[in-house]
TrEMBL record, chain A:
Residues 8-44 form the CheC-like protein domain. Signal peptide: none annotated. The keyword Electron transport does not apply. It comes from Rheinheimera baltica. Coiled coil: none annotated. Pfam families: CheC (PF04509). This is Chemotaxis protein CheC.
TrEMBL record, chain B:
The modification 4-aspartylphosphate is found at D54. It holds the Pfam family Response_reg. SUPFAM superfamilies: CheY-like. This is Response regulator. Keywords: Phosphoprotein. It comes from the Bacteria. Residues 4-119 form the Response regulatory domain. SMART domains: REC.
Length: 191, 121
């Protein structure tokens, strides 16, 4: 089975993501009442060891949520700690954030971002994927073999909010069957 | 004589989507640009009486292209086609003189309506 991502497929995925991130940014912009500048999403395939390395990046908060449907997998989101503070400030939360408030904010942000990423695939490729509720986790407390994903797609998006920067990385882990399903749909879109 | 039209978008899929959405019987000559600089070069070369413009692009983004055209009082008819659907983006695009702002994914009927509104078809 060839699950490699070709240039055309990458371009198509990037554009689907661009469209869904536009929708996510719009929801986020309404939430924080600020204009958000979107970057071009970066799409890449990630090996299991790269994935573990990615999770150990410093200065980020991590959340995860699984999804089920005609494609199955898990979405892991990484959000910069500084960026979260900046958003909290814009939303007039009291700083420094309490652990409970921060968790609430993180879960809300990851729901918006992961939800948009996934709906980008699902709606535009006529696939179904239902997201579960996100949870915050600490990658240091999980053993590497916890991640059984052999194939993951990483979609990096970066939002700039006024003067502050909010970096966010959304990693979509797909089961092998789901990757083939996704690639087949992409290919038919490109015909 | 065919109307010179430029489609500026960094995504090949999106350029294809615009091509597909254009009325089949519209007599045009299409140039493709993959970033803002190429879009401006197409305008300078007289290849863009109508410019379909994406906003999020490398090198020079769509806002940069609009700003340049606005400052140089260019006659190009710009139709922005973007995934950035924030009201602020629309306001900025309007203030820079774009003729219309269409959201991605592009709707062919909407596009035809816009071309009709501007008197192109």
């Amino acid at each position: 089975m060839n699950n490699a991502l070709g240039d055309e497929q990458r371009d198509a995925l990037q554009e689907l993501m661009n469209i869904s991130m536009g929708q996510a940014a719009n929801s986020l912009a309404r939430l924080i009442e600020a204009k958000i500048t979107l970057s071009i999403p970066k799409i890449s395939s990630v090996t299991p060891s790269e994935f573990v390395a990615m999770l150990s990046s410093e200065g980020m908060w991590h959340t995860r949520q699984s999804f089920l449907g005609s494609v199955k997998g898990e979405v892991v989101s990484l959000q910069s700690r500084l960026g979260c503070e900046a958003i909290a400030e814009l939303m007039e939360y009291q700083l420094p954030l309490s652990d409970t408030t921060r968790e609430e904010l993180l879960l809300e942000l990851s729901n918006i971002l992961a939800g948009a990423c996934l709906s980008g695939f699902a709606e535009q490729l006529a696939l179904t994927a239902k997201l579960s509720m996100p949870t915050v986790f600490d990658p240091e407390k999980l053993s590497p073999d916890h991640y059984r994903w052999a194939n993951t797609l990483s979609m990096e998006v970066e939002f700039k909010i006024e003067s502050s920067q909010f970096d966010s990385k959304i990693v979509i882990c797909l089961e092998e069957d789901s990757i083939s399903t996704l690639l087949n749909r992409l290919n038919s879109l490109l015909e | 004589m065919p109307i010179p039209v430029t489609i500026a978008d960094d995504s090949m899929m999106s350029r294809k989507a615009v091509r597909r959405a254009l009325p089949a019987d519209w007599d045009i000559e299409i140039t493709e640009a993959t970033n803002g600089k190429e879009a401006l070069a197409a305008v300078e070369a007289g290849k863009a009486e109508v410019l379909f413009l994406d906003l999020t692009m490398p090198e020079l983004d769509g806002f940069g292209v609009l700003r340049y055209l606005h400052e140089h009082h260019a006659k190009t008819i710009v139709i922005v086609i973007s995934a950035d659907i924030q009201p602020e983006a629309k306001k900025l695009v309007d203030s820079l003189g774009a003729f219309r702002f269409l959201h991605k994914p592009l709707n062919a009927e909407q596009l035809s309506q816009v071309l009709f509104d501007v008197g192109l078809i």
